[in-house]
Amino acid sequence: MGNISRLKPILLVFLLFLLSHISITTSTPRYIPVVNIALNCGSDGNLTDEYGRYWIGDKEPSKFAPTEEHSQKSNTSDAPNSPDLGDPVPYETARLSYSQFTYVFPVTPGPIFVRLYFYAVSYSGFDRSLAFFTVKANTKFTFLRNFSASIHADLGDSRHLSKEFCIIIEEDQKLNLTFIPTPSTASSRFFAFVNGIEIVSMPKYLYYSDPEKTSPPYVGQTFRFAIDNNKALEMIHRLNIGGSSISPMGDTGMFREWSDNKYLLSGGVIPRQPNLALKYSAIPNYTAPDDVYRSAITMGPNTTWNLHSNLTWGLPVDPGFNYLVRLHFCEIEPNITMAGERPFIIYIDNKTAEGNADVIMWSGGRDTPVFQDYIVMIQKMGDDQDTSTLFIDLHPGKATNAIYDAILNGVEVFKLSDNNNNLAGPNPPSTLLPPPPPAQQPGSTSKSRKTRFIAIGTGVGLFLALLTLACCLVVWKLRTSKRYSSYYPVSKCWFWSDQNKGKSMRTKASSLPEDLCRQFSLEEIKTATHNFDEELVIGVGGFGKVYKGFIDDGTMVVAIKRLNPESRQGPKEFWKEIEMLSQLRHVHLVSLIGYSNDERELVLVYDYMSNGTLREHLYDTNKDSLPWIRRLEICIGAACGLNYLHTGVKHPIIHRDVKTTNILLDENCVAKVSDFGLSKEGQDDKAVSTLVKGTFGYLDPDYARRRQLTEKSDVYSFGVVLFEVLCARKALNPKLEEEQWNLANWARKCIEKGTMGEIIDSNLMGKIAPECFKVYVDIAESCVRDQGSQRPTMNDVMDKLSFALQLQKEADATKEKVNPDGKETYREVLSFHVSDTTETRRYNNIFSGQGSELDSGTWLTSNNTGMTYPSLDSDIGKCEDVFTDTSNVSKG
Ligand SMILES: *[C@@H]1O[C@H](CO)[C@@H](O)[C@H](O)[C@H]1NC(C)=O
Ligand SMILES: *[C@@H]1O[C@H](CO)[C@@H](O)[C@H](O)[C@H]1NC(C)=O
Ligand SMILES: *[C@@H]1O[C@H](CO)[C@@H](O)[C@H](O)[C@H]1NC(C)=O
Ligand SMILES: *[C@@H]1O[C@H](CO)[C@@H](O)[C@H](O)[C@H]1NC(C)=O
Ligand SMILES: *[C@@H]1O[C@H](CO)[C@@H](O)[C@H](O)[C@H]1NC(C)=O
Ligand SMILES: *[C@@H]1O[C@H](CO)[C@@H](O)[C@H](O)[C@H]1NC(C)=O
Ligand SMILES: *[C@@H]1O[C@H](CO)[C@@H](O)[C@H](O)[C@H]1NC(C)=O
Ligand SMILES: *[C@@H]1O[C@H](CO)[C@@H](O)[C@H](O)[C@H]1NC(C)=O
Ligand SMILES: *[C@@H]1O[C@H](CO)[C@@H](O)[C@H](O)[C@H]1NC(C)=O
């Protein structure tokens, strides 16, 4: 008794722990499926399962009773009494047959989940070892082939199995599911069975690709891969990383089950924010339950260790299939607030999937869930290999604050149907099988099922309780002693399930050519662009026209750049761009999908950026004016892209033509830097001496003078972009008074005079918080300083812009509290003075003296006097070899 009273405080803590962790979702789900059928096969009544879900029977006269082809009817049977039955619905009864049977479900068109439930035991008259069957959906897709539930079940620790598939139902189509026993052999007759079937609809583009949007990248390749109507998916893993399992009722309305941490191969710590209110601004709120995002695994506080290791998961998969890997992220640690503070590299299947992963950059802020999709092919090495491991490795990147870490909150892995519409893999090899489970002893117990269930329940419950108690104490202890909001160490291999231990199930990684950039035939390109239909021209770029095109039977929208055959300058840059782009991959760079060089036509195929260029959104436009926060986000994105070019790759790449027409916006207004035709690889920090190229108004005067190209030239041009974004005026506009022609110079004068606040975009008047303005103008001003050495790096720019964004958001939040209607504006006069006035600035007006304006914003010079003329149709836009005479340059 004394012991018990001593236990009381612990029990109290335990109860509180349980209460805080068992949240019963009573609110309406975030997604309400149109189709929601739960069929309890072999049952004639309707029953509720342990979660309160209503399952209807499939026995006549149920409207879902299966149809049979043969005279031999299928049988139904109750599962034998067995201690591991667990949840009786839908496992308690089964439909079984030695011949084929089909269920037909009338469903609303659209993507649906099909879940099949199996309880792998022997039923009266049906021996479990003889259940081998195929399951087909709508005749087309093979979900399972020669499937043995018992072999699969014996590998795991439970004889309950469920399989989840996704399929799209077309207009006027029903869903029919056919169960076909494997053909009998001389010695055995096989049968098919099923215990439960669930059909639930899902949001249209939850997993299937939205043709209007960028489809997921194909890891290790440069093209993308759309998941369209012709694919069926099988869910292989769905993990709540760092958290506990989530029952179907805890999902967002689609009854998906999320498992707890498994398959972590390395150590890690678990940050948790159990009551965090999440902001769903980047993805729909039904994507995953909140609890998936409220916990994560990170590497932990030892940066030395982190830099020399990976956070690694090894997920068992069938080889020979493409997989959709969805990684869920949410930055939940209180002191990581800005992009650049926790960048990391994502490797999938030992290939770089993401060179600069940054959760805040993707999501736009802390506590904001986001996910990223990748497609990866898991190669089959030889015919006898039937299991493989999909590795996900995270490695710290270059962080601005010297905290080297990585984070992951959730993972979903789906197998994609192959070209034969097949999803089925082989049964696991029998060599992996543990000794057979003890034989069933029918009638060994006379207790009623219900009481047995409760007894087991309590037993398991008690065990779980003790386990949770232990964990709870550990967490509690650590919580009070450690710096992380809440974490506990996860020991190496802790979650690695036994059957995989020590077994290297993976052979050598695939050796597909690295530079596989999709090659198109001219025919394909012509089909895609309706034979270069002028109607589809979306722009006139560096070396020809850009068309909107449709590839892969119209399922994918792309931008197709056709090299102007007259342009002599083009081909070199064309190959340069292919070479560069196929090696670069970043969320803020436009992705190259492929190219074509048939019949002397040179064509590049890119991701389609549905929102066009940044410039189109700033001035001379009928588009809605971009809000200030959006503009900041776009600038941060573009800065990230450039920073990646400068620092994220082996040899730094200098873009050389940074301008608002080369910053494109995708459907979500995410900025992507484009046009690498002029890019130059720097050689290990040394300046590159080269012919002067670029676009007037954006051209770095230091570079023009000294012809020494460094990353700082891009910084200058980016500074001009920042002013353009703030003022919504052209980089160069000779229609204005002479001193105002060159925006960068004019802005610098205004800053000196303290009148910068007067020349900003009238749409932004009253919208910019003064503290944000100060930081922003400071960055822009520092970028356009005369000497490259006085300018910040792109990384600094990125950070400071993120800081400016943060200041704006904070100010907005404060303002909203004071006047929630949002009508009030920032009244304080925006002013800014250059802090560092000791330096006498010499404004180099070389570019403001000549030339007239061209709409595309690009310029061509005809001679070496510095005179520039707009080039109308060639639109080369580069001023090659203008400054042969340096005296020419320094004048003005
Ligand atoms: C079971 O539920 C279905 C659908 O809700 C209903 O049509 C049927 O009558 C019910 N059957 C029984 C035996 O209650
Ligand atoms: C299946 O049911 C039929 C009657 O519908 C019965 O004749 C047959 O023996 C049953 N088969 C088994 C294996 O129980
Ligand atoms: C199943 O669907 C396919 C295609 O929709 C159809 O050809 C077939 O007849 C259907 N089978 C049954 C039994 O309804
Ligand atoms: C989820 O998002 C939808 C649409 O954005 C919104 O209407 C709904 O209220 C949100 N639900 C919850 C629970 O936040
Ligand atoms: C961090 O990791 C390094 C390398 O493994 C190790 O030598 C060092 O002791 C660790 N530091 C702490 C504080 O654990
Ligand atoms: C978070 O805070 C802890 C202590 O409060 C500190 O040790 C750690 O470095 C911080 N992390 C970051 C990214 O600032
Ligand atoms: C991390 O994983 C990647 C991909 O498998 C591998 O190339 C790299 O060497 C690993 N790094 C460390 C430190 O283990
Ligand atoms: C079905 O699977 C079993 C076990 O994996 C295998 O022995 C058998 O050959 C397979 N049968 C067919 C027809 O594929
Ligand atoms: C792939 O990465 C995993 C985990 O980092 C590692 O165990 C495995 O050896 C790697 N395989 C190859 C072929 O590099």
UniProtKB/TrEMBL annotation:
Classification via Pfam families: Malectin_like (PF12819), PK_Tyr_Ser-Thr (PF07714)
GO cellular component: membrane
SMART domains (alphabetical): S_TKc
Keyword set includes Cell cycle: no
Compartments where located: Membrane
Residue ranges of coiled coil: none
InterPro entries to which the protein is assigned, alphabetical: ANXUR1/2-like, Malectin-like_Carb-bd_dom, Prot_kinase_dom, Protein_kinase_ATP_BS, Ser-Thr/Tyr_kinase_cat_dom, Ser/Thr_kinase_AS
Ranges of Basic and acidic residues composition bias in the record: 63-72
Spans traversing the lipid bilayer: 453-476
Occurrences of domain Protein kinase (ranges): 532-804
GO molecular function list: ATP binding; protein serine/threonine kinase activity; transmembrane receptor protein tyrosine kinase activity
Record has Transmembrane helix as a keyword: yes
UniProt topology in membrane: Single-pass type I membrane protein
Binding site for ATP: 561
UniProt feature, compositional bias: Pro residues: 426-440
Annotated spans, Disordered: 63-86, 424-448
Name the record gives this protein: Protein kinase domain-containing protein
Gene source species: Carya illinoinensis
Organism taxonomic ancestry: Eukaryota, Viridiplantae, Streptophyta, Embryophyta, Tracheophyta
